[in-house]
Specification:
It comes from Bradyrhizobium iriomotense. The chain is of the alpha/beta class. It contains 6 helices and 10 strands, in the order βββαβββαααβαβαββ. The strands form 2 sheets. The chain has a 6-stranded mixed sheet with strand order 6-7-8-3-9-10, with helices on both faces. The protein has a 4-stranded antiparallel sheet with strand order 2-1-4-5, with helices on one face. Helix 2 packs parallel to helix 4 and helix 3 packs across helix 4. The chain is globular, with a radius of gyration of 17 Å. The structure holds adenosine-5'-diphosphate (2 copies). One adenosine-5'-diphosphate binds next to strand 1 and strand 2.
Length: 224
């Protein structure tokens, strides 16, 4: 079954820039795919269309939940390159925000926040403030915030690009372990060939020609 499908999708921004298309992509439920390609080829545009943050100029974007088809934007967690945490509130409050917006009850919200923080290795940092955390830890908070609503689909836009190599590798390993446990659909935008091959089951290479896919490669796990 498909988690996401884009068919004949084009996107022209108001300034006339043809950012995408026509573009086709189908992602299966539980699949971890990477989008790779030069700056400006439309990777972020694809994520924004799937998230429902932007509407296609033509074509269709479909996102399905376990129960069936839903509007783009539902059932989605989004992690940006910048952790975009609220500086004046604790880690706990930052992670709780999406639940608050969804109107979750306090007891349930607390339990989910604790679970999300534990899943990214930050169980002991609920009371900390963003300024007290390293870049890698801020990214973990951002990931916990994306996971706290238990979305079916996780969209990640160059999430680790600003981190040092060792921190980045640790996060790669933890994300992979998390995916193996949770089996969410992940669409991961990166400029790193290593990261795309190491993390994902499938690498889609976009080209500088809007919407044109240069390669769509299945990666078989090399581990025993
Ligand atoms: P299943 O996995 O249940 O066999 P498919 O993956 O073949 O189903 O297709 C599920 C739905 O997605 C169908 O409605 C089909 O028309 C649509 N679909 C299939 N391939 C694509 C594609 N490449 N792009 C967009 N939508 C697709
Ligand atoms: P990528 O993520 O691959 O770097 P983007 O999807 O961000 O690519 O951008 C694709 C193209 O659309 C680029 O030419 C970019 O300058 C343009 N673009 C992106 N967002 C906007 C916007 N909000 N308004 C106008 N043009 C945009």
């Amino acid at each position: 079954a498909l988690a996401v499908s884009l068919r004949g999708v084009t996107k022209a921004y108001d300034n006339g820039v043809m950012a995408l298309g026509p573009f086709d992509l189908a992602v299966r439920k539980g699949e971890f795919i990477s989008l790779l390609g030069p700056s400006g080829c439309g990777k972020s545009t694809v994520l924004r269309l799937i998230a429902g943050l932007s509407a296609p100029s033509t074509g269709t974007v479909r996102v399905s939940r376990h129960e069936g088809v839903t509007r783009p934007g539902h059932a989605i967690g989004f992690v940006f390159q910048e952790p975009t945490l609220m500086p004046w509130t604790s880690v706990r409050e930052n992670v709780r925000l999406p639940l608050k917006l969804a109107g979750a009850g306090k007891a349930e919200a607390n339990a989910r926040v604790d679970e999300a923080l534990a899943s990214v290795g930050l169980a002991d940092f609920a009371g900390a403030f963003p300024r007290e955390l390293s870049g890698g830890m801020k990214m973990r908070v951002s990931l916990a915030r994306a996971l706290v609503t238990d979305p079916d689909i996780l969209l990640m836009d160059e999430p680790f690009a600003a981190l040092d190599e060792i921190t980045r590798f640790r996060l790669n390993n933890d994300l992979l372990a998390l995916w193996r446990r949770l089996r969410k659909t992940v669409i991961f935008v990166t400029h790193s060939v290593f990261e795309s091959v190491y993390l994902s089951q499938r690498v889609v290479v976009m080209t500088a020609r809007p919407g044109r896919i240069g390669a769509d490669i299945r990666i078989e796990t090399v581990e025993p």
